[in-house]
Amino acid sequence: MNELIFIASALLLIMIGFLKFATTEVKKGDKFQYKLKGPIISGNEIEFRKTVLEILPPEYILICKVRLADVIEPKMNKKDKMWLDAYSSVASKYFDFVVVNADTFKPEVAINIDTRLESGKTVRRNDAFTHHASSEVGLTLLSIGSNDTYRPSEIKGLLSDHINLYEIETVHREKMTDSEKQLAKRPKPEPEKFMATSMLARKMKIDHDELLENLVQTGFLKNSSEGNQLTEKAESIGAVYKQGICAYRYEWPSDISLAQPSQ
After folding, report:
1. What number of other Cβ atoms are within 10 A of residue 71's Cβ?
2. Residue 239 in contact with residue 222, Cβ under 8 Å?
3. Is 118's pLDDT higher than 50?
4. What residue ranges do the domains of the chain occupy?
């Protein structure tokens, strides 16, 4: 009987201790108060978004604050002991904006508002990693200067290398009245004579990496310790490596042929 009383007393004490601990934790949580921070993007980012939406066709959607981990993932198997480190590297960073296909939500181009002049070394290292990771998976990452206002013509010129901004005109004209069509009439843009690698890949309906591999196989690019370089064959057809709006890029004749030479 004494043993039963002892066991019952011990259980009672454990229950009282647990309830006391739980009550203390609730009270501890109650002392913290929270508030809304306000806009989730900065004023400059709001202005940039407005400008992009003016020129973006309905075939695309602009999404803000997208984690790298939602777009990029480690190649290695999840069972690999290095997988968690690789995943953590992309999980803690984000793109300011990502343009995605409205039907498939496949990323087309990522955009960061460049504040490196105001930022410390840590931010600059993060920027370098983000550019490296994006380049590795064939996703174009554009860095735009942080401004109070943005010119639609400049943003249109920047994005037109990566997505087709002229489709919106055709879609809207189909819904216009005859008078509206007359007012909106404008010269049809001339076909591009030269294209950036990403746009050429879209035209050929192949992946960016597959196009680069084809360019190497057909002798237009060569591998070196410093990365891919143009060959004399590429330069002979007018291909160039030039400064774009954001960074250096290859430009190729839009009618380039990647057919393998016959043996």
Report:
1. 19
2. no
3. no
4. 43-170, 194-253
